[in-house]
Design goal:
This protein is α+β, with helices and mostly antiparallel strands and 101 residues long. The protein contains 2 helices and 4 strands. Strands 1-4-3-2 form a 4-stranded mixed beta sheet, covered by helices on one side. β3 and β4 form a beta hairpin. The protein is globular and about 40 Å long.
Length: 101
Amino acid sequence: MPEVTGIDHIYVSVTDMARSGAFYDKAMGVLGFRKNAFTLGGDPHVQYFNRHFGFVLRPARATSSHDPYRAGLHHLCLRVETIEDVIEASAALQAKGIDAS
């Protein structure tokens, strides 16, 4: 049986593609991700990716706001090599106006 070694990609449904894209353009850009846009099933998608991982925004089909304590995705945590990498990424995100700790 093959061993799973990590996450390939995660899709997140959002109610406002433009607003979410603006946020993730900054955040994922700071973290070194590249960006790609495509259409799947007639819906626009935006993908942020590096050689290990993909993070995709797609339009939500419902407009209710997200509650992280309902069933579904609570949060996304990205792995880096050292605590110094965490501190550097946090500072770079904060410099772009993104609350990160």
